[in-house]
Queue: 2 jobs
Job 1
Amino acid sequence: MLVTKQAQTRSTDLVAWRRHCRGTLPLDASVEEWMTDFFSDDNLPGLIEEHGSPLNLISTAPMRSNLDQLNQVAAERNLDFKVFFARKSNKCLAFVDQANHCGAGIDTASENEIQQAIDQGVEASQIICTAAVKSDSLIQRCLKNSICIAVDNRDELHVIVDQANRLACQAIVALRLGGFRHEGQKLPTRFGFDVDRDNTLLAELSDLPLSVQGIHFHLDGYDARQRVNAIAQSLEWIQALRDLGHSPAFLDIGGGFPISYLRSAQQWEMFWQEHEKALLGQRESITYRNHHLGRQQTEGRIVGKPNSYPYYQTPVRADWLASILDAEIGGQTVATKLRNSRIQLRCEPGRSLMDGCGMTVAKVEFRKQNAEGDWLIGLAMNRTQCRTSSDDFLVDPILLPTGEGTSDPMTGFLVGAYCTESELLSLRRLKFPTGVRRGDLVVFPNTAGYLMHFLESRSHQFPLAKNMVVSDAGEPIALDLIDV
């Protein structure tokens, strides 16, 4: 009963916090309990003063839960399975330690990420290098430490072979594939050997100083059916490798496991319906200067797709993985096919492991009205500190009224510190029913996956945001080792 009362209290508190800032069309974020505890923490303003704005707060506890969900799906199907954490999704070393502690590997995309994993005690067999561009120095580091390299192209393969011969060692590699066939079409990608055109590569590998341990691929998007077809075609390559005397033992299906940032499918659908009306001039704009978010108005109709992550979607994470494993290939489920092929299934999720693991907090520095009468609320941060490749982070921020003085209700936009007209932290029009004061704090929830670090920039010589680890074991909050 106590747990139920606590949950009810948190839910009531969260409703109270949300009332200070809502989108014109609300998009309520899913928020973890550890985050809500901070909303009323009297120490939060002091942390901002000490470490600067914005400040990233992270917790590794949700990562452990997210990993457990994926592992449980595989265990229920008696599948040999291993998760590799996509380090590029967040630079904090606390997540490397947590992944290692939970038995997950580390997917690295740079030489620094490799060395940091080694320095944190991750064994070489638990590291894979999937960097899109691999320098001579990076390849040497992999070879000297016996780290598996996902080979992307022939030039890269030649460098690996040359350096392996020079070092008198055998390179451990996985062949990265692309160009899979799906519903009569080739899936476009910039990654990997083409599954059809480059099949002559197989006959060229036998006399090279390589140990081909597996097949790897990366697909854009979240279509589970595409993954099933890619798995089927990858298994054909695995069999061909075995027929030629190689011993591939794993199939790595990359990352891109979907999550849902929002609580309500209805809010998500309503937002896009009203956004379309705004673009057609049928209602007032709900984005800054009626920003199109990737869609266009042409001859009275809306064309194009939103340049946005699907912030609400289903199925996600474990259920999505289960749908792939339970799909059929040639009359057998994918899970059965992998078991019968004696293949370990690997994956490299980033965002889905970071779900619930972080939030970004920034201080309000000013309020002013522009020439159009819109209020602009200036935060001590820039747009690269909460942004990926999407046009916008489509969740409602949470305003913590910690500033002094009074303020009238206002409607406007969050703007950042870069000296450009496009420096919007959120393109959506936001309502502030209780006003905004200088010194208030704005929280962007669930930013650990890519949003904190993927595009962060030091333009204008601004310092990068500090990252603080919130312990679930009662230990004091402390800077992540990446900042020490």
Job 2
Amino acid sequence: MTEKDKIQSQEPKKDYYIDDESKNMDREPIVESENYKPAGKLKDKVTLITGGDSGIGAATAILYAKEGAKVAFTYYSSDNDAQRTKERLEELGSDVMTFKGDVGDESFAQKVISDVTSHWGNIDVLVNHAGEQMYQESILDITAEQIDRTYRTNIFSMFYFTKAAFPYLNEGASIITTSSITAYKGNPNLIDYSGTNGAIVSFTRSLSQNKEIIDKKIRVNSVAPGPIWTPLIPATFPEEALAGWGKSGALGRPGEAYELAPAYVYLASDDSSYVTGQTIHVNGGEVING
């Protein structure tokens, strides 16, 4: 392959969107920007992203590939999204592994870690990103089954994947969680989801102070998205709730998935070598204390 071919193979497709689950969107979520300039910050790093098939997870996987990483990701159900993302990562020259399953099942987490480490050895970056939310007008409508499902996907999975991965995390590795603006300001129609994100923030802070983590010089941080236009949004909110959605911040608009991904690169790379136990707020100008 010539140098020109290498450059051309890394150019983003202008029409690269994840839209398998977003047919009722007025516009498609954008997971890749033409303006990003990679610098080899994750060259040869082994990275694992839960929920990496679409939205923020796919945007992060793409930047990791551009930065030279090997990328494994999990997904729950959308084979089309997973295949599309996998093909894009391979176009960028990345080695890729994909895993379909339920992150809320500990045996799935153990199998993913086992397969990744058997294939690539140890792990350098673990991104606990997979999550789900369900809109309810009344707390009376939140069933025990919904609570169990939300907590199992959003917070139990972080324990499962972190526990399974810990023996294989290299010294100086990075663990990144995805929390949410709802952990700080709440949401009256996403009560159980907001609760899980409060737990994620505490999980992140506590894990960063754990002696075993510190002894291995592992950094643990979180990214807290504000209103980001992903397939999850129209799948969650009723149409009437989307009219002014995401416009309360200083920038007056919802964000795109690709605008989150550089934060995950920063936390995965040596650029953040003195950062642990912290949360980066990428929310379009909502001032959040804490």
